[in-house]
């Protein structure tokens, strides 16, 4: 066990929830020398952490009473609501940091709950896997009480890379949801494309390696598209919509000719056609943003 760089109350933390991620968080605190109290609905999950030096509490309220900083890591928002109900007024005077996955609305509701009971609230999310906790490349976005975040930032930094997104408690969840959604959107498109490539008899692994090599060209495009959306000045990124729409017809017919799903391609083509019909055919792909949600 290493020695904590903080002492007294600053070196005390409670972790509620000992699933894979919660256990990794608690173990990191223990290994960094913090006096760590843990609680889990299934008490047996506390045993390995107790053996490593943690103290197990029998109830959530008892666990919260043991430390000024309380980190919650549970399955979902419903589980958080249930545990916080059991914590009750024991949270008064504490800093509650919730790293459970959830929506911005849930984060703001949790903040109201904490503030009404005399506690400060910081919402956080985990962008990485349990084995990565404590390493620099795992990311923890945080938002909520600035004073609480700054007071406990040294402790939170023990978990990995951290970033503070402001006093809106929902801001960290916005970042998390957007990052995760972007990954899923990209990867499902990638899987459909591999289906297309394999249908044409091409080695999917070789194609994936070539595509990975082309990804370095995307960051400048992404930032320029975001700037166009911010300013409303839509240049012809990727070429004009008039030209792109013709290409979309080829992409759709190619997919359908080999039995590969083309729903997303048809959606893009429909958006392009609407934008062109409205007189914006000289603009680029980023201008489709104006039609989303309508």
Describe the structure.
- The protein has about 290 residues and is of the alpha/beta class.
- It folds into 2 domains: about 10-165, Rossmann fold, CATH 3.40.50; about 205-290, N-(1-d-carboxylethyl)-l-norvaline Dehydrogenase, domain 2, CATH 1.10.1040.
- It is about 50% helix and about 15% strand.
- The chain has 11 helices and 8 strands.
- The chain has helices spanning about 20-30, 45-50, 60-65, 75-85, 105-115, 145-155, 170-200, 205-215, 220-230, 240-255, 265-275; strands at about 10-15, 35-40, 55, 70, 95-100, 120-125, 135-145, 160-165.
- It has an 8-stranded mixed sheet, sandwiched between helices.
- Helix 10 packs antiparallel against helix 11 (about 265-275).
- It is elongated, with a radius of gyration of 24 Å.
- The N and C termini lie far apart (about 55 Å).
- Mean pLDDT is about 95; it is low at about 1-10.
Keywords:
294 residues; alpha/beta; Rossmann fold; N-(1-d-carboxylethyl)-l-norvaline Dehydrogenase, domain 2; 8-stranded mixed β-sheet; 11 helices; 8 strands; disordered N terminus
Structural class comes to alpha/beta
Q: Domain count, please report it.
A: 2
Series of secondary-structure elements, N-terminal to C-terminal: EHEHEHEHEHEEHEHHHHH
Distance between the termini: 57 Å
CATH class of the largest domain: Alpha Beta
**Tally of extended strands?**
8
Tell me what the CATH architecture of the largest domain is.
Answer: 3-Layer(aba) Sandwich
The dominant shape is elongated
Largest sheet: 8 strands, mixed
Mean model confidence by pLDDT: 94
Query: Which residue ranges are poorly predicted, with pLDDT under 50 across at least 5 consecutive positions?
Result: 1-8
CATH topology of the largest domain: Rossmann fold
Strand content: 5-15%
Order of neighbouring strands in the sheet with most strands? 3-2-1-4-5-6-7-8
The rounded Rg comes to: 24 Å
How much helical structure, as a percent, in the residues? Answer: 40-55%
Tally of helical segments: 11
CATH level-four homologous superfamily name of the largest domain: NAD(P)-binding Rossmann-like Domain
